[in-house]
Amino acid sequence: MDRRVVITGIGVISPIGNNIEDFLKNIIDCKNGIDEITLIDTSSYKTKLAAEVKDFEPKEFGIEGHKKKDRFVQFAIAAAKQAQKNSGYIIDDENRYKTGVVVGSGIGGLSTIQDEHKKFIEKGPRKISSHFIPKAIVNMAAGHVSIELGSRGVCTSNVTACATGTDSIGYAFRLVKNGYQDAVFAGGCEASICDLGILGFEAMSATSFSTDKNRASIPFDKERSGFVMGEGSAIMLLESLESALKRNANIICEVVGFGQTSDAYHITAPNPDGEGAMHSMKFAIEESGASIDDIDYVNAHGTSTPLNDVSETLAIKKLFGEHSKNIAVSSTKSMTGHMLGAAGAIEASICALALNKGFIPSTINYAVKDEECDLDYVTEGTRFEAIEYALSNSLGFGGHNSSLLFKKYTK
């Protein structure tokens, strides 16, 4: 059974907006969500900047007992509730077991792990919270979303580092396409801006040590030096076209392809030949039945690290050949930072909105051309033009390469 799959709802908690209206406006306005870290004291750290979620109040989203839920879970619940609300999708006895949840996180409750370990060291074993494990483990985001929404279909979580959000949406796409579920709430969440998270990436020299928020996350720029950590969540409702039409839903766009590969090369570095990323894009396009010449826009993984941006550029050039000169490419991590396990989901959401509203988002703060990164990175600001196909890439530690292809919805 091959069914058409559409997106009918999106919810976001992000460094540039905690609802879809603010988020969309800020993407179009090229808002920078990066600033000095406030969640922890970084006075003795090299890393000074991050893209934090601002003004997040769990109670405003009806999240009860929030102190028993890690921040990454709170973000997921808030985003999922938004997605359900703006989709108009009602879960009842008729569809409860055909409505699923696929929500992952790259790291999970790292701050909870850190805090509980500190209590153990300072106060002894009897001070460990009974909520420690349920707060920390990755699958609890999916579990809590299912409980909050009342869905009883598939409930699972992917953990593929920075490809988590993309893989979650891709798995949901296949569940609906192949008839196992009629609708799935899918996406990613992350909240790792804590001492362990910052210092762990800092020890790898993976993060930018810049103190200039406008020159920290600068994908494809020759002076890029590392990624800027972000946090938040994006959840979208994927639904069969039949289900969406039956309830006269607002259709944002269509999901038409999903590709996955492994570099089988290195635990953190991408394969410099770009073959893995090239094939994940190729497989997503092949599943859709589209031609490579149909692709208008690529939302690149674009981490602002020296290795990623060159290898991803090469992957795009290898796949698209001459057409690569005609494709608009951008990295919205320049605005949101790198939201790790939520990155693919937030970027999928941007692609869906871009198709629906007719724009191509920018790579902000780009200044210095890199001879090895020579594509059209949309550095002049948002372009307002209709596009038909948008491809979103996520490339995670461990060699995970994932690509989603979205299409402007037509009957």
UniProtKB/TrEMBL annotation:
InterPro entries the record matches: 3-oxoacyl-ACP_synth-2, Beta-ketoacyl_synthase, Ketoacyl_synth_C, Ketoacyl_synth_N, PKS_Beta-ketoAc_synthase_dom, Thiolase-like
Keyword Nucleotide-binding listed: no
Gene Ontology terms describing biological process: fatty acid elongation
EC number: 2.3.1.179
UniProt pathway: Lipid metabolism; fatty acid biosynthesis
Catalytic reaction equation(s): (9Z)-hexadecenoyl-[ACP] + malonyl-[ACP] + H(+) = 3-oxo-(11Z)-octadecenoyl-[ACP] + holo-[ACP] + CO2; a fatty acyl-[ACP] + malonyl-[ACP] + H(+) = a 3-oxoacyl-[ACP] + holo-[ACP] + CO2
Group of enzyme by EC: transferase
Active site: C162 (for beta-ketoacyl synthase activity)
The entry's keywords: Acyltransferase, Fatty acid biosynthesis, Fatty acid metabolism, Lipid biosynthesis, Lipid metabolism, Transferase
SUPFAM superfamilies (alphabetical): Thiolase-like
Ranges where the Ketosynthase family 3 (KS3) domain occurs: 2-408
Pfam families per UniProt: ketoacyl-synt, Ketoacyl-synt_C
Keyword Lipid metabolism: yes
Molecular-function annotations in GO: 3-oxoacyl-[acyl-carrier-protein] synthase activity
Coiled-coil intervals: none
Cellular-component GO terms for this entry: cytosol
Family listed: Belongs to the thiolase-like superfamily. Beta-ketoacyl-ACP synthases family.
PANTHER family the UniProt entry points to: 3-OXOACYL-[ACYL-CARRIER-PROTEIN] SYNTHASE, MITOCHONDRIAL, POLYKETIDE SYNTHASE-RELATED
Chain's role: Involved in the type II fatty acid elongation cycle. Catalyzes the elongation of a wide range of acyl-ACP by the addition of two carbons from malonyl-ACP to an acyl acceptor. Can efficiently catalyze the conversion of palmitoleoyl-ACP (cis-hexadec-9-enoyl-ACP) to cis-vaccenoyl-ACP (cis-octadec-11-enoyl-ACP), an essential step in the thermal regulation of fatty acid composition.
Name by which UniProt lists this protein: 3-oxoacyl-[acyl-carrier-protein] synthase 2
Source organism per UniProt: Peptostreptococcus porci
Gene encoding the protein: fabF
